[in-house]
Design goal:
Elements: H1 5-12, H2 16-23, H3 31-44, H4 50-57, E1 62-67, H5 73-87, E2 92-97, H6 102-110, H7 112-115, E3 119-122, H8 129-135, E4 141-144, E5 155-156, H9 160-173, E6 179-182, H10 191-206, E7 216-217, H11 223-236, E8 242-245, H12 248-260, E9 270-272, H13 278-282, E10 289-291, H14 294-310, E11 326-328
Parallel strand pairs: 1-2, 1-3, 3-4, 4-5, 6-7, 6-8, 8-9
Antiparallel strand pairs: 10-11
Length: 334
């Protein structure tokens, strides 16, 4: 037979109302009384009905996180950091994968997933700012990533351009002059790929090195795509002495292909990435990369979203903080 709130009240020697107040985190409860109720809940194994509780309070204490694909290492590690940051603040996280599909992003903004959460952390890759604003409703929303940037929306940003320039400058200072870029199209301007390409070009210009569009190879941001793009470069006869993958998965794919082809890294060709996923430290050789401030992004985005959820002020200034990045120099491009 299921344990009820009445059972908890009897075991703790308090009223049913007191048990309800403890479960709903009512602040004006004596610590000793609260502890008695919590002890009784643990002892009896009482489980609260979150649906009924949310109907009464209008709050679920759940945050939503919408991202493209958890098989992408950066997203998986970011999701883990976000869950830790939310847990520390008394919230849990529901995760939805959009698969880069506009209809899935739209559903996450307006459908059942949205109704289960108090606010949403959203990495859009298909919807634009107008579509997001039209669909967002009244619940708080904080964007991550750089595909959409709009002065009307809260977001936590990566210093994409500055960090990419730092990677490129490091490669240039190491004597590299023919730096291939994986993961962008020549002429890209928007989103992470466009901003990182812009940083690359700025560093080349500052060093007086000519930009060569033949060194910019478009591909998906996956390991296999990085390996394929590197193979195409090698087979094309285009000369290059370094590879900059616009994320670590691309760089690791490139590293694999170079080693399979018998090319020495970094002696012949240096390799660098972006994201500092865990695997980058354990590659052989270990991967030079950018740590974009993932833990800071998680902390600041969760803090901002909860601030919006719990604020009594309906009017708030939009916030768009940038996380601090670090260049992690390792064996692939010392």
């Amino acid at each position: 037979m299921a344990v009820t709130m009445n059972d908890v009240a009897r075991a703790a020697g308090v009223s049913l109302k007191t048990v309800s107040n403890v479960i709903n985190n009512y602040e004006f409860i004596r610590p000793a009384t609260k502890q008695r109720v919590l002890d009784a809940i643990d002892e009896l194994g009482y489980e609260t009905n979150l649906t009924a509780r949310s109907l009464r309070s209008g709050k679920t204490s759940m945050l939503g996180l919408v991202l493209a694909d958890l098989s992408i290492p950066y997203y998986a590690e970011l999701a883990s950091d976000i869950m830790k940051a939310a847990w520390a603040r008394g919230y849990r996280v529901l995760v939805e994968q959009s698969g880069n599909e506009a209809e899935h992003e739209q559903a996450a903004l307006q459908g059942q997933f949205r109704s289960l959460t108090d606010g949403l952390l959203f990495i859009p890759l298909a919807l634009d700012a107008e579509q997001i604003i039209a669909a967002a409703g009244k619940k708080p929303l904080v964007l991550l990533g750089e595909f959409v940037q709009d002065p009307r929306l809260d977001m936590v940003l990566i210093q994409n351009q500055e960090a990419a320039a730092a990677v490129t400058t490091h490669l240039l200072e190491g004597g590299r002059r023919r730096i291939a870029v994986l993961g962008a199209h020549d002429g890209d301007e928007a989103g992470s790929n466009g901003l990182r390409l812009r940083g690359y070009r700025a560093a080349l210009a500052a060093a007086g090195v000519a930009y060569d569009p033949a060194l910019v190879v478009p591909c998906d941001w996956r390991r296999d795509a990085g390996a394929d793009a590197t193979a195409r470069l090698l087979d094309s006869g285009v000369e290059f002495d370094a590879v900059f993958g616009l994320n670590d998965a691309l760089a690791l794919g490139a590293l694999h292909e170079l080693l399979v082809r018998g090319r020495k890294v970094p002696e012949e060709i240096a390799v660098a990435g972006f994201d500092d996923i865990d695997e980058s430290r354990f590659a052989s050789p270990s991967l030079t990369t950018v740590a974009p401030g993932r833990a800071e992004i998680a902390e600041r985005s969760v803090e901002l979203l909860i601030q919006r959820i719990e604020s009594k002020d309906a009017v708030a200034n939009v916030e768009q903080p940038e996380a601090v990045f670090e260049l992690r120099i390792r064996q692939s491009a010392p």
